[in-house]
Amino acid sequence: MAADGVICDGDHLVLDVNGEKLSFVQKLKANGTMRVGKYTVSTAPLIGAPFGALFEVTADGKSLQRVLLPPADEITRITDTERDNSNLFDRNTENQKLTQEQIEELKKSGKAGSEIVDLLCSNSATFEKKTEFAQDKYKRRKAKKYITYLTPRKPTARMISEAYYDKCPERVWNLRHDTLAVMLSLGNVAAGAKVLVVEHCLGLVTAAAVERLGGQGAVCATQLDERAAPLDAVRLMNLDPQQRSVLFTAYASSLLKDKAAVERCEGLAAMTTAVPAAAPATIAAAAVTGASEAAGEQAAQADDGKQQAEEAAGAGGEEAKSADAAEEAMEVDAATAASGSAAGPDAGAGAGPSAGGQQQERQPRGGDGRDGGGGGYGSFMPRPEALCSVLVSGFDCCLLAHPKMHPTALLDAIWPLLAPSATFAVYSPWAQPLAEALAHLQGSRNAVMLQLQESWLRPHQVLPARTHPHMTCSGSGGYLLSGIKVVPPEATPLAAALVQHLKSASGGAAAGGSGAGPAVEAKEAAGGEGEGQGDGEGRGRWQVSLWSGQDFGSWCLCLHVHCSR
Amino acid sequence: MSNFLACNAPVEDGASSSSTTIKQGDCVIVYEGINSMKAVYITPKGRFENRFGVFRHQSWVGKPFGSKVIADGGGKGWVYLLRPTPELWTQVLRHRTQILYLADISMVVMQLDLRPGSVVLESGTGSGSLTHSLVRAVAPTGHVHTFEFHAGRVEDAAAEFQQHGLTQLVTVKQRDIMENGFPDTLHGQADAVFLDLPGPWKVVASAAACLRPNGRFCGFSPCIEQVQRTSEALSANGFTDILTYECLLREYEVHRETLTTTVRLADMPAAKRQRPNNRAAAQQAAEATAAAAAEAAVAEAEKADAEAGAEEKGEAEAKGEEKAEATAAEGEARAEAAEVEAGAAAGGAEGKAKEEEKDEGPMPPPKRVSLLPACVQTVSCRPSLEARGHTGYLIFARKFVCG
């Protein structure tokens, strides 16, 4: 039994051509054709073959022939040569007696690729004079041209990552497979983990996380604004329903609101009722993921009335003030309903059906939007128990790969969703934004184990007597900021006073401290829960000293509003 | 009984969040600083002592992982209590051998295509650094078979796995894999094989026998000669896609710096206004063309004589211009003498110099000041001065899929 199983009708594949080029085949059809290099071949031989099996394009270039034994590598084992290139003259085409036309004819006559290569060697004026090593290289180069080997590979996150990086690295922000690997390690992504993902790398990070969970745990592909979380890579994998069940999409805003609602109820020990009530809020929000902007606007108008009515009714009206965007208006409605139901049984009875009604009403529209790009996977709605679990105890892993978003802002936005001791890893192709985020986290004392690292990878050619690093390699795998979230205890009055004093004295710069801890300093007491409003202020202050850009003030203000929401 | 893996945690039924709080028997990573961490196992009567104070384990029970705790008995010291991860474990474990670190570990786990349910063979176990990451990747349904020929290390590793609640997921056995290969019972059972041995090429045939078709092989070797031999053994034993990589993580240090944006040009103290200055001026002037010399001299005059009067500057400038043609003046020892001489010789140039000065002299400095604040605070990063240069080569290969 092969390690990756066999290829079935409808599977997705990654095609490896001559070990050089990777491409995707989506939804393999048993009676279809596919492009392999410059040939179009029938897909039939692939069905039922194990993933990783080797095929050769037949001489006529129309079909695939399974290769059952490893082809001879034909590598010269000698370690020393007596020839050199002192009598070798490069006269380009003159050295090859076969003309291009003759070669084409050979190909048409159905000669095997290996025979053409032999003919090319015997007709080369210089081949015999070359060193054995050069002959090797010549043969390998010609073989790649006249023999096409094909290996269908299982579309694992690694294969997809390598294929993306080969084809178009910009589209995944140059996220290389080894960097992705380190990211998954640092994030402590494994079965049972609850992973928060915010990315803009074609769903690659999400796909890798889903793969590592193996059907146990939760992966939340988080959506920040109107743009849906990318899931392209997830849709390229052959996930079974169990594996896929861990993934759901949600708006960050509704998660934050639900989280706040859950926390408010915790004091009242009403959590068990709060959670099921909170779930529909996110579900309703997720349902509109695919809705067009126009639809969103309509909804906003429609919701305005409802919102005001509920505000008047006083059922958690505080959220209403943050509602300006269309989507937000809807979520707030739902969140309001949720918190209302949590706050008291009476309010809950009133608000519950309204949230349910919204969900039903929007389901078809959201469904349309999703099925369009869903590739048959349908929508990734959060299961109530998964949502409950991530809201109550928080996410314990966080993977961020959204380089256009400043990591300081991004981390600030999702910070309340993370559990204490959550591991996080942030990817960016640039070091500077990550350095700023690291300084910010250090200053706010919200995280430890902070590291900024760059990944470096060098492939080597290993051949007898010809071993050396490749002549070209990727320049940088990008940068990773990683750390672990911590929660400081409540500030003692003394500490608070000390902080106040130090702030006024040094403008928030870290002080050597009371000499108690390894890096005791002033900020420790300012944190509260590490996510509260008071801390937002502390961080805002920190950034004043961090950045002196012109638009900083307004940016900081945004952040502040966000924090206190 | 431990909390090493998320999937080992007792199923959370709604309100209970037992896996997020510290309980008896848990392994806790006590974080004092990034280079100062310790693994502590919570016991009813346990105490943790460091230079910052004494902590009773009991006072940690029930606190969430990630908490900051203050020392008992009115001490002011504090530490953070972190949930163990294989990455943290790699940093706190007791070294029994040279171990693999994050970059290589991540690469191995990724390139071996490990996922929940995989069966992986490892040799040697060493300090169990990689083993923890392998177990994390294949849990909860896979298995790691790890072999070590050193009896003491086998015992230690087994005790650790026991303590970390991994016994269902990992089997550690004493066996000389280089001599005997993997046990026959594992033939055809493995999805992946990892070798960190002095002679991995000796085990390639056995690895091939254990791997299922399309299974993945990885060897870690510090020396290129080992890679060479392993690589040859792999292609002779039915492996394909043989690739050798070197990977590293480069650490960056982040600094906050205050950079001054105004270039404050101090005056040279009067007592020191001597020959070196003249010489510099002379060199500068000599290099310049006649026209450029005048400009250079204006600048020079500004720098050197901010507090001096207008006439004095004119003299200085004239002096510079004069020096261009009269290198003999360099020989003059005293500044006063030079000035006098220059002043006398530059009669014609003086007028022109004054004119220029009126136009350009006072203009540039105010511009500089108005454009930028006095200083900017920046965050910058650079690679750490001391960096890892080489750990080892990773050879990856895939078992050919025959019939």
UniProtKB/TrEMBL annotation, chain A:
A Pfam family per the record: Gcd10p
Keywords, sorted A to Z: Nucleus, tRNA processing
Subcellular location: Nucleus
GO cellular component, one term: tRNA (m1A) methyltransferase complex
Basic and acidic residues bias locations: 362-371
Cell inner membrane is among the record's keywords: no
Region (Disordered): 295-378, 510-541
Biased composition (Low complexity): 332-346
One GO BP annotation of this record: tRNA methylation
Keyword tRNA processing carried by entry: yes
Family listed: Belongs to the TRM6/GCD10 family.
PANTHER family: TRANSLATION INITIATION FACTOR EIF3-RELATED, TRNA (ADENINE(58)-N(1))-METHYLTRANSFERASE NON-CATALYTIC SUBUNIT TRM6
Protein's recorded name: tRNA (adenine(58)-N(1))-methyltransferase non-catalytic subunit TRM6
Organism: Chlamydomonas reinhardtii (Chlamydomonas smithii)
UniProtKB/TrEMBL annotation, chain B:
Extent of Basic and acidic residues compositional bias: 300-337
The protein's enzyme class: transferase
GO biological process: tRNA methylation
GO cellular component, one term: tRNA (m1A) methyltransferase complex
The enzyme's E.C. designation: 2.1.1.220
Family: Belongs to the class I-like SAM-binding methyltransferase superfamily. TRM61 family.
Name of the protein this chain belongs to: tRNA (adenine(58)-N(1))-methyltransferase
